[in-house]
Amino acid sequence: MELFLSYLSVLKCVYLFLHLITHMSKSTRPDLIKKLQALLSSPDTDYRSILRTSAELSKLDEKFQRFTIDAKTLIHLGRDSIKDHTTALIELVKNSYDADANDVEVEISTKCKTPFIRISDNGFGMTKDQLLNSWLRIGFSSKRNSKLSEFGRRKTGEKGIGRISTDRLGANLELITKTVDDGIIGLKVNWDEFDVEGKDVFDIDIELTHPQNITLPTSLNVQKNTGTEIKITNLRQSWSPKNIENLYYELSALTPPFSEVKDFEIRLKNDVAEIYSKKVESDFLKASEIELTAVYDGKGDDILYTIKDKYNPKESTEYIKWQQILTTFSRRLDTSEIGTELTLGPVTIVFNFFTRDSTAVLGTDLKLADLRAFIDNNMGLKIYRDNFAVRPYGFPSSQFGYDWLELGDRKARDPAGLGRGEDYKITPNQLIGAVFISRDRNPKLIDSAAREGLVESEEFEELKAMVMGSILILEAHRAKLYPEIQKAKKTKEKHSAYQETLRIKEQLTTVKEDLNAIKSEIEMGGTVNPENFIKPLVTSIDTVEIISEEVESTISGLLDWQRQLSGLATMGISSAVFGHETESSISQFKGAVNAARLVLRDVPPDIESAIEELDKALKNSKKVAAWGAYALTRVQREKRIKRKTQVIKTIKNVVKELTPVFESSTIQITVTGDNFYTTTFPMDIESMLVNLLTNAYTATLLKGGVRKINVDVQKEKRGQIEGFFFKIADTGPGIPKEFEHMIFEPLFSTKTAGANSSNSVGTGLGLTIVRSISEELKGDVTFGKDPNLTGAFFKVWLPKID
């Protein structure tokens, strides 16, 4: 093979020589001849060096020149043009769809000796010719010439660079593919070899392999014996549970829940968040309050609208003209960039509107918490072209594209309620919708150069206006349902706080009427018969006393409820911050137990290895148990009762419960100080402490080196008032000066998922809770830079009550 390539290279070189010598001036011909003679006479000459010299010789051509390609160009096309690892993986799954796969298996393994990502499908695979002349030819795509797959699917990519997305995921790629004609063939790529300045792409070897086996998806809807398996190692980015969650829901959006696509199934397997190791699917649309479908066939200006809701069994169908929509909603629809005549091809719009409350799951087997999670992860309006989602439209994780119709800003400017009729507006987090278009029948709706979104042409503005008009029709329909919605709510309400308020109001009205009657009789003068007013007065006094007791009990209950809510909010905040470690411990526990089970099934069983794995499981179970104990004791009744409390003991108990979580992140936590008692609510001390500890935990992770948190408890007298403080200091970066005036504001948070992340993991409520509780107890909160640990400190001072 090498000899054959050398002959071809020599022929190419001689052809180039003859071409050049006929175009060059006589003065430069001797140099050309010398270079060619030196090349052909060298014992180290191979076909690569001949071709490389041919490229150098071609630069001597005085009439024509040619491009050369730097190897790093591939890095720019792949790694630098695809924004994150989720997008890169989605590109590979799209390739499986184009290959007529029925099943795709996506596996992410991070806890094994060599972490890897694996994508396997049962598509038609690639022949050796396709692998060498198509896959290895950057920029080549058969999809431009053959837009439909053998199964009639409209192929999703046409630029020929999606394969380079593997470089965004990891440095090493192994591809194995199997076809009916050629059997199994593969190749290996080390992308890091391309990340070198000045290296020609032709100088880098791609190893061809001939594997004996290929692992195709095991849960097949259609049994096939062909397909492609991609394995990526030396991963470039870690995968967090949140990354896996985002990936799962983005995969579920690739083939929408309301589409006709039934022959494409994705199964996700991972060891990061095992809850998402399952078939990718969703079944929550049946909980929507309103379903709207709009169909435009691409001809004329008639749009067919079909609407059904949960209050009326019969759906309504109506043709509405485009001009009628423009006229009816002229005040609320921006038509500045569109004409009165539609130029779009066929478009189908599907909306599902959700109320997000318990009425949504009545009569179903769905849980409200699960429904809300589904809405939160799928909310927004996605655009699907040939049944594949066009990013970033409608993706919750995308700032640019999630609310591409700016429904949130629109609602914020005019937050009219449902009772306000035509002024009512929905919010983007209540809507799951899809806009279906076709690449062939909407040729002017094309991708932007960055492969992120569509070009905002006149046709795109027309599409936006049609979608917005459909939203206005949905809003108008829901406004008409207002009486029925109110009726349903009243039927549901039992023993509500509203009804209790009405009851007390009625009692007070009766008292007022009795007292007014007595007052009128007294003001009439003359002889007043005591019998006429003493009995009503006594009754009124008794009623007022009863109401006073009820109000006092209600206020006491509300305060207790507020304290309980603060405790629950604190537990929720700390769960969000510490949840990763706990989830990781659970995953490791499961993994160790499964490993022990496997080695015990061996013949003979490997007892020593099983004990080792069970020890790992026990260690992780203690971490989970510690977290469970912490969570279960946060809102116990006795903590909401004011009693004599040993402050440092209360603080040490909380720290002890959280120590395993801190230790798993290599954070040293210590408690020092005085031992004394005060009369207070234990839950208040714990809520303030836990919120400050979660802040310190997050801050210490933002810096390297030794990580420390110190809690100090001391008595401190202010003027004539005996008091005490507890102070939490950390080794984090401290509080930026530009944020100092904002840190106690509700919903303001600087917590992120890590030093290199901009994703917030904070609720912005922790410090608000701390200040609120301290003020209620007539104390205060101060902060600054700690002189010892050099990070931030927060100091809570409270009056001491004996």
From TrEMBL:
This is histidine kinase. Coiled coil: none annotated. InterPro entries: 2C_sensor_his_kinase (IPR050980), HATPase_C_sf (IPR036890), HATPase_dom (IPR003594), His_kinase_dom (IPR005467), Sig_transdc_His_kin-like_C (IPR004358). One of its GO terms (molecular function) is ATP binding. Its EC number is 2.7.13.3. It catalyses: ATP + protein L-histidine = ADP + protein N-phospho-L-histidine. CDD domains: HATPase. It comes from Pedobacter boryungensis. Residues 577-802 form the Histidine kinase domain. Keywords: ATP-binding, Kinase, Nucleotide-binding, Transferase. It holds the Pfam family HATPase_c_3. It comes from the Bacteria.
